[in-house]
Amino acid sequence: METSQDLFKQLEEAEKLFSNGSIKSAQKLVRDVMSKTKSFKKVPNALKHKLNFAIGQSRYFDEMSSFATNPKREELISEITSIISNPIDDPKKQAHRIHDLQAKWQLLDLSSRPASRDQWSKFNELCNKGWEPCSEYFDELKAIKINNANQRLKIIEEINVYVQENSSKWPDVRTLIQYMRSTFDQWQKFAPVLDKDLNKLKSAYFEAKKPINDFIKKQESSVIAIKEGLIAKVEAIDGDDGDLNIKKFNDLKNDWKKAGSAGRKHDNKLWDKFNKSADRLFNAKKEVLDAEISTAKELLKNLKDQSVTVQDCEIQLSELKNIQKSKEFNEVLSAIRNIKNEKIQEAKISRLGEYNKIFELLNDDKDQSISLSKNIVTAIVKSKTNKKTDKKALLYSCIKLEILSNIESLKKDNGLRQEIQLEMLTSKFNKSKNNELDNLDSLIIHFIENFSKSDSGAPEKTLWNRIKKTLEILVK
């Protein structure tokens, strides 16, 4: 004998089912409680009020169901009335048409509150009248309905077998939902059935599915609890490091995906709540990004008006950790590179100008300063005392500089060029350090040390002009 407290809990469960959209299951619970209270000598007030409220909910959903389906039933009544008024020439086609209308009527009864007695009586009488011209086909259609009922019985048996085989260890919810959909699609194919079979089959069908539906609801309730816990964890994230906060949220998002489905009705609502809980984390991150982007724009402006040095700008730019792939960050990097390249180019032009002065200084008695290496300056000073020019040494410097610059030498110098190339190759493979004439400054000094203004002339000037072409390539 169940107590009032047991019935009270059943009504609470019915309220949850109403809330979840499981109207039929909830109404069944309410009817069960109503039946059991009849054995009570006195129903407690709390239970009475709870029961009256549940009955009201049940009636409300019945009314809503009728409101949604009654117009469709009236359309079916209008269609059968039209067939009676204007019979189809082919009795078989008319029988099929009436059969289709009956199937639609039964599907409405399956998915919503059954039709009222008056509606059903009216529709049934019209169908019987519509059948009169189809008497020859009636037996054939009856056989179809009987076959449909047998096929539905097979579906019910298949579900029962599926439950027996899987109830000890159910597949995942997604698989169960897909199975339920496939059986429902099969069920709908076999309609209509005889009126006397309809309710029995419908009841057996729902009873067969009940263990699966119960497990799905249980699992969905479990998933709801897990996802509500994940939402609470998101709301608890409160660190100072924005990137770390977002990483924690993304880790929780992975846990969310693994949790499974909470049911179509709940999943979207929970997902929206989950994401909205994280909005503040991304807003905080956005504030950091906006601040750093603003700093980058200010650095770019300061670079352009030269109110900040490149070195100071690079230090400040290195502190912008969150926008290193942004357009603003790259614009500052590009501006720094441009400034550095301009300075390198300016230095190159200045140094090239200093190298170009060398030949003039070699032929000038006046002492002039030059911004080149100390060794070059010393060599220029010593060259003033040279009595004779070593023309072969000068040509050696010129041709080797042309080789280093990838500039073609004169045809008449090909022999010496090949000797120098062989020398360079031998030195490379032997890793010889004896030949120190392997860079710009050493070869320029070699030229200076073997130059004497006392016997220089047009040939030396021509050689220097060839060397000047190499300087434009080698000076960096």
Largest sheet: none
Taken as a percent bin, the fraction of beta residues is: under 5%
Helix content: over 70%
Question: How many structural domains?
Answer: 5
Number of helices: 18
The residue ranges in which pLDDT falls below 50 over 5 or more consecutive positions are none
List SSEs in N-to-C order: HHHHHHHHHHHHHHHHHH
Q: What value does the average pLDDT take?
A: 83
Describe it for me?
With 476 residues, the chain is mainly α. The chain has 5 domains: 1-86; 91-99 and 113-222, no CATH class; 223-278; 292-346, no CATH class; 357-474, no CATH class. It contains 18 helices and no strands. It has helices spanning 4-20, 23-37, 45-85, 91-111, 117-131, 135-166, 173-189, 195-236, 242-259, 264-304, 310-318, 327-356, 358-362, 374-383, 391-405, 414-430, 440-449, 458-474. Helix 7 (173-189) packs antiparallel against helix 8 (195-236) and helix 8 packs antiparallel against helix 9 (242-259). The longest helix is centred in the middle third of the chain and has 42 residues, at 195-236. The mean pLDDT is 83.
Could you give the topology of this structure?
Elements (H helix, E strand, L loop, with lengths): L3 H17 L2 H15 L7 H41 L5 H21 L5 H15 L3 H32 L6 H17 L5 H42 L5 H18 L4 H41 L5 H9 L8 H30 L1 H5 L11 H10 L7 H15 L8 H17 L9 H10 L8 H17 L2
Helix pairs in contact: 1-2, 1-3, 2-3, 3-4, 3-5, 4-6, 6-7, 6-8, 7-8, 8-9, 8-10, 9-10, 10-12, 11-12, 14-17, 15-16, 15-17, 15-18
Which terms would index this structure?
0% strand; 476 residues; mainly alpha
In short:
The chain has 18 helices and no strands. It has 476 residues and is mainly alpha-helical. It folds into five domains: 86 residues; 119 residues, no CATH class; 56 residues; 55 residues, no CATH class; 118 residues, no CATH class.
